[in-house]
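User: Last request for today: this protein with pyridoxal-5'-phosphate, please.
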Amino acid sequence: MATTRSIQMVDLQSQYQKIKSEIDTAINQVIESCQFINGPAVKTFSQNLATYLGVKHVIPCANGTDALQVALMALDLKPGDEVITTPFTFVATAEVIALLQLKPVFVDVNPCTFMIDEYRLEAAITEKTKCIIPVHLFGQASNMEAIMTIAKKRKVYVVEDNAQAIGATFQFANGKKQAVGTIGDFGTTSFFPSKNLGCYGDGGALFTNDDTLAEKARMICNHGSKVRYYHDSIGVNSRLDSIQATVLDIKLKHLDEYNAARQKAAATYTSLLKGVAGITTPKIAQYSTHVFHQYTLLLDQNRDKVQKVLKEKGIPTGVYYPVPLHMQKAYKASGYNEGDFPVSEDLAKKVLSLPMHTELDQDLQEYIIGALVDAYKSVK
Ligand SMILES: *Cc1c(COP(=O)(O)O)cnc(C)c1O
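Assistant: Here's the final one, the structure of the complex with pyridoxal-5'-phosphate:
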């Protein structure tokens, strides 16, 4: 049965069909209003997201990469300042550091959670270090309690790259819970269509509890301007448009349900793979819920061959990410070499992400895992 269905990494079509009438009406209302930029939908969504996250300020912008860039600009970092992040992330995280003429400093990741290794973090901090960007990869948080303790002690800022973990919750040792992305000086996110909270185009946002930083970030997004045509700082043009905001406002109401569907699908994959030697299922850290932006396995060998066999059977998979950033051509100038971050390099050879979205069902998942295990056992 499942073989006759086309399988996608992310099934946005089925998700849309379920909310189609609400979405179509809302988009039409924006078109009728002709308030495409800075319309009421943008403000409403930003306020609703702030309430959902329990954060004081949500500053909408054009995409998740801009959100990171604006955060670093608002922190007044100067060329040559060092910013720490991991080499096992999407390129955007390091790209904005380099674009602002700051120096990316990489710290290897934990082999189980794939997050920045808090035990290696402090050794990477120098007098020039101004900021740490933990990336909450694949849907769960980095160890924010450990990172914030180090950051406070060494007086460096923290910007959480939360493009993949919106809706996840961090739990501190004392039991206190806080939305992932609202713990550092800034949190940033992306509303790219395939993200857990995705719009129908590009979008992004910054989160902060700091009034001064919020005001700065808002100004930077608006050409460095508070009063029209008066520019106090050099900014950028980065806006979330009203059509995207209205889509996001509808999808925000479903976010917990969407994340629960991802968690259920992840649990199904994990139980179907139980006891299969050579395939490691994702580990969930004690201190965070996991909203499974990706369901990422480790194959101890033949990852590329297995991926090819699955592709021939119509089963798409993803490799996030095949080359760690310190080994990318663009980041040669950072002065790193192969061998510098062995955990990230090893993960890049072994990771395989399975189809993950809100519309998976047991039959389809059984078919995918059956094909995966067959492929894994048969390739040499
Ligand atoms: C998607 C993503 C971004 C960039 O978001 P865009 O909206 O595509 O600019 C940044 N960091 C991480 C970890 C991401 O997954």
